Each structure stands twice: as C-alpha cells, then as structure tokens.
Amino acid sequence: MNTTYDVKLGAIQHRTDRDTPLFIARWRVGGKPKSKSFRTKGLANAFMSDLRQAAKTGEEFDLATGLPVSMLASASSGPTFFELAQAYVLRRWSTSAPRTRETDAYALLSLVPALVADAPRRPTAEDLREVLRTYALIPEKRRPALTVAQTAALGWLERASLPLSELKEPHVLRTGLAAISVTFAGTPAGANTVRRKRAVLHHLLEHAVEEKVFDSNPLDEIKWTAPKAVTVVDPRTVVNPIQARQLLDAVPKVGRRRGPRLRALFACIYYAALRPEEAADLRLANCTLPQTGWGLIVLEKARPQATKRWTDSGQTHEPRSLKHRADKETREIPIPPVLVAMLREHVAEFGTTKDGRIFSTRTGGTYSSSAHSYVWQEARKLALTPAQVASSLAARPYDLRHAAVSLWLNAGVPAPEVAKRAGHSVDVLLRVYAKCMDGQQEQINGKINDALDT
Predict the structure, then answer these.
(1) Are 249 and 284 in the same domain?
(2) pLDDT for the residue 279
(3) CA 245: distance to chain centroid?
(4) Could you give the dihedral angle defined by the CA atoms of residues 37, 204, 152 and 55, in that order, rounded to the nearest 10 degrees?
(5) How confident is the model at residue 439 (pLDDT cuts 50, 70, 90)?
(6) What is residue 188's three-state secondary structure?
(7) Is residue 137 part of a domain?
(8) Structural domains in the chain (count)
(9) Helix and strand element counts for the chain (H, E)
(10) Coil, helix or strand for 176?
(11) Contact indicator for 122, 160 with CB cutoff of 8 Å
C-alpha cells in the first residue's frame, strides 16, 4: 500500500442536473484528484470533516483510494451489516404491515449499533438509534432533513459498520445476540422481545444468503438458546361473566365522552372475542342486529394502531386485512342478544362515521390504545375490589378476549368452532387457552368431588 501525507481538501459541489441531487466531496491526495458522492450535504460535510480530522492528526492517506488508513478497512471489505439492514427493511416495506416494519426496525436499533468496529468519535447510543429510527430505516422519499447530530451519527455508522464477511465469526454474532438480550436501558429484555429480535436477525441473514453473500445462514451454527416465552393465558387475568358485566357497566361512568363511547367496543371484545383492532374497524354493514335473538358479525378488516412513520398514510390507524388471513377474507361470529342490544343502543345514540364505522371519537377519529387503557383502568377501580385492582385480573382490555374464548371452551363449544370464531388455528387455541375462569375453582372442585364419590 502506497501512502502519503500530501493531502489538500477541496469544496463540496452541489449537482442538480439529475433526478436525485448529489453533493460531491472533492480533495487531492499526492496531487491526484479524488471525489465521493453523497445524497445530502450533511453527509458530505461529515465525510470531509473526517478527512480533515485525519489530516490534522498526521494520519497517512492511501494513494489509490484517497482515504485515511483508518478508513480503509470498512471501505474495502464489501457490503456492511448496516447496508444489509437498510436493504432488508426497504425491500420488505411495500409488502409489510406497519407493525411488522416497526418490529423489524426495533430489532435493528439494537443490532446495527452493536455490530460495528471500534471507531473513534462514536456518537451516543440515543443519537445512533434516533438516526436509524427517523431516517436510515425508512424510504428515502419520507426522510426528513438531518440535524447536525444525526448527520454525524449516520456518517459514523456508514464508516464503522462491520463488513458482512465478519458475521461468519461466532463471536461477532454472539455480540449481536447479546445486544438483543437487553433493553436500551441495559436491563434484561423480555423473552418475547428477544425471540422477535432474534427472528429478525435470522431472516435478515437469510436475505444475505439469497444475495449469495453467504452459502448458508451463519446464525444456524451458533449454539444459543432463546429465553422461554410465555405462550399460554395466565388464568389470573381471566374474568368470569359476573365480573365482565360489572366491568362493562362501569365503563360508561368514566368521563363524559370516552366511557360511554367505548362500552360497546369493550363488549365486542368480550361477547364476540374481537381483537381491539377488529372492533375499531367494525362497520354497521358488517352487523346483523335483529330486534330479538342472536345476531351476526362478519369481519372484513382490522384497524391496528402503529407509529405514524411506519404507516403508508402517515396516520396512526390504517385498515388492514384480518390477522393471519388473506386479503378480503372474512370471519363470521354469531353474537348473543346482549351484545346485539348494546350495539343497537350505541348506534342509536352515537350514529356511525361517514365510512360506516360504529366506534369513533366525537370527531370521527379512532381512539388510541392509551385512551382504551385509561378508560379501562378507571372502570376496574369502579367495578373490582382493591385486591383485584392490584392484581392482574382483567389488567388489559385484551384480557376480555381471553375470557370470551375460555368461556366458550368451558361451555363445551367444540374447539374447531371456537377457533373459527376467534380467528385462531385449532392448534394455537388448544396450546394457548385453558379453562381459566376466575371464581369457578369451587365449582370445578365440586365436580371433581362428585366424580370421586361415584
């Protein structure tokens, strides 16, 4: 390698004669002109700042590449993990749900800053995560202008990210696995979180296999056991029918607007086992609500909540196909008279939105999960004993769905029918749900005694 100390830094040229504007950093090494193009002026400035710092500290520059010796390793070792991470997210963007995009990015917020070389002037962990979250891991047309700190963080990641070839080394992958095993605060991460992030890493490396970077997935060679995740419903969270009615009766007493508007939505979660995002997109056209007897809900869409930067519309709620179902596939749920009556009363009092949704804010919007949670926690205080409020009993609105499925199973409804109504596979149903009705233990024990006495 031929090196020199003869370095002269030039200016940054702004090219506007093409579809995507370019900022070109120019300098001379050993009398020979060098240049490098960037998509933003901030990145070009950060690059020139690094060259200036290297020259100031007396570092040698490579005549062939024009780069300081300290920057040669990352520049000559092929694609980096950061580049793979960006390609992975952007390739999946158009076909992924907003929550999937967010899950992918959340894993990469741990992995990308961990799989780096020990380069000087490392930005803070928060600056690195911020530039990934708000800029690097979203499509180019949606990226905001970079701040000075974000520009420095992005430039550092581009230089310090490890070449993909190094991910063949077990100790490098173990560094990544260690990073996903803790929270951003450094405490042990939850088992489900660790397993989700590990799945993203594995899938990302499968992407590298497809691109012929690896012959096989190097993560498969690592002997590492993911923490065991809880996959069954905790019986302590499940209410019995009396408690469910008490909670639903308490909901309208919370506030002047939110409580009354959310009672029937929570009732749909309990009596029809709807997921909250399914109830949020329920439309009057989806419902058959007779004057007497059982009715019917035919679900078509869900309306999950996600952070705005991950949605297509830039809104927090977007209609999506039903979970685990193909686009336009529906699910039918017969509903008992008590829910039919609640829905009829709700529509009579509050009407529907312009697009036919039954549940909305006063202005036609969709209630956030934090609004659901606030109303629910206040209703718990009104309906439950202090000991129950302090416990995990019906701690979340979603626990009403667990109660519904458990009730159906306890009532003797065949598992395939329960799975069909709840939108599960039978395998998941039998693995996740149990006969966990709070307040039924004495009754169950009595049945066992009767059997023992025969």
Answers:
(1) yes
(2) 96
(3) 33
(4) -60
(5) very low
(6) strand
(7) yes
(8) 3
(9) 18, 10
(10) helix
(11) yes
